[in-house]
UniProtKB/TrEMBL annotation:
Domain of life: Eukaryota
GO cellular component terms, semicolon-separated: extracellular region
Native source species: Nothoprocta pentlandii
Record-stated family: Belongs to the AB hydrolase superfamily. Lipase family.
Listed Pfam families: Lipase
Keywords, in A-Z order: Secreted
The protein's name in its UniProt record: LIPR2 protein
Subcellular location(s) of the protein: Secreted
Amino acid sequence: SHFSEGECFPCPQEGCPMMGHYADRFPTKLKRINQKYFLNTAADPPFTSWRQRVFIKLSGVKKTRGDINLVFHDKEGNRKEYQITSGILSQDEIYTKYLDVEINPKLVKKVEFLWIKTPFTLLWARLGADTVNITHGEDGHR
């Protein structure tokens, strides 16, 4: 679906659809009929998540096998790990993914880049990230 592939992010120029208690304060949006809205939530209360677009360009070896994960750490010591991709990794490729992160971007202390090498690879060269961009919010701020 367009939603799961991140094609609805960031919100269109006319703004995001409004939900919940204050939705009736946006009468022009209430006039739209037969529209479907989707919402990803976190697994645990308060079920909040922030949609973020992750963009990673690798540096180092030309090709190897492994996983790229990002770990979000908040100021209270909580951590959440998300897989960006798995399998053959290539320096020439740019990896993008939409994540619904369960840590408020305002509370993120650091984001850790993890490259997990599969044990059967013969290539032990160091691989790193040349660029990691994370965009969040309806206006697509970095």
